[in-house]
Amino acid sequence: MKKFISIIMLILAFSILTACKSAKEIDINKLEKSNFDTTQQSKEVTLSVKEETINTKAESITLIYNNLSDKEYTYGQEPHLEVEADGVWYTVKTLENVAWDDIGYILSPKDNREDRFSIKNNYGELGEGNYRIVKTLYSNGESIYSIAKFTVA
What we know:
The protein is an alpha+beta fold.
């Protein structure tokens, strides 16, 4: 009987450990290095994530745009997520068949706005680590980008 209980306990412990590791593991070798440099991001529009730390099951995050300039900017829904590994940023691929509306949101001068960014629909479940969102914004035919970091724990 003791042997049977020990086997059941081992199976239960293994199941629990396996469930804890169910978060998506990202293979860095299959990803491209980022083209974005935080030192060159715009100072006219800042971007931040309301939830600085999320868990691996989070479905979305809130992006906060703050236009500090006198220009009007537009941006779209296109997702761009990056993950950090050994101090280097890599572009995370979206799930297959991901689509988004080709719509332009207006960010007026000296204004701010919040938008939901779907992690689940665009990337599925994320593994633990440091991530950042990169958003490209447009004004009068010119583009800038802003970056916001967050952690998955």
